[in-house]
């Protein structure tokens, strides 16, 4: 576990350094087009001027200003890059870079005065109360195609989203496998490509990457959710290399066996899964996919009982709807889940 955490942290540091370097280079190209040297080849007096200008004038792609912490992170990322190339000075400590250090401090004060740094756009945690409401409103449910898609996505993201190499947009059907342990308990196991292998084809799996069936609560069992989703997929989408998340048919007969197209759900829609379901469910606060990583997966006894009641109610409603309108119960896709947008 320590090795995995270290590897994940190291990857985040590398990405942060690359982002800082890319944004600083882009700034130099736009404001100082004649400057083509690698930044570790630029003398400290000149580099200090460039950095001061960057901290004061740099903007995001949409023209808005950076958060104060973002500028500080960029300074640290550039510091790491220069240190890797044995630059003679520290841009965060040495007085040769006093100008840019002062410019950063002044810019941070200015941004905070404008209200930046309070993280008004920070994602809020997806709470257990939120999940209960989403279940109650059919947006996390086995009884309609949108609710089922949301449900398996949420289960996978909670269980595997923290793992290095797990990406919803590239997840294949064969990456998550239904297994039975030696004790007879069913589980879902995520397998991943081992790119350290020369042929990059071998898959590895460990018991760390598993979701186990909850026999005491079948109504909320993630394995049962997976089985239902498998049953609702077209037969042609059950091979290993098929995309895991499929787009929903524009009009679905809930009594029909298959609810999904032979087409991957678009990346843009996957990126807005939580935002979309929370907006439809009138869940307050800014919710994004990152909200899932902040959430807690354990339920109190009272919450578990409430969840069982909600699921039982949904099952009864689905059964009554199907019996009162046989063959005519349709689910019409609105907004974000129609199959026309595969981008």
Give the helices and strands, then pairings.
Blueprint: H1 2-31, H2 44-57, H3 68-84, H4 98-113, H5 128-136, H6 145-160, E1 176-180, E2 186-190, E3 192-193, E4 203-204, E5 210-212, H7 222-232, E6 246-248, E7 251-253, E8 260-264, H8 267-270, H9 273-280, H10 290-293, H11 301-324, E9 330-332
Antiparallel strand pairs: 1-2, 2-5, 3-4, 6-8, 7-9
How do the strands of the widest beta sheet line up side by side?
1-2-5
Number of helices: 11
Shape designation: elongated
Helix content percent band: 40-55%
| Strand-residue proportion | 5-15%
Q: How would a crystallographer describe the biggest sheet?
A: 3 strands, antiparallel
Mean pLDDT: 81
> From the alpha-carbon coordinates, what is the Rg to the nearest angstrom?
25 Å
Number of strands: 9
Taking pLDDT < 50 over at least 5 consecutive residues as the criterion, the unreliable ranges are 194-201, 296-300, 334-343
Order of helices and strands: HHHHHHEEEEEHEEEHHHHE
Distance between the termini: 36 Å
Structural class: mainly alpha
InterPro entries: KIAA1958 (IPR042838), ZMYM2-like_C (IPR021893)
Protein name: ZMYM2-like/QRICH1 C-terminal domain-containing protein
Pfam family, one: DUF3504
Region (Disordered): 320-343
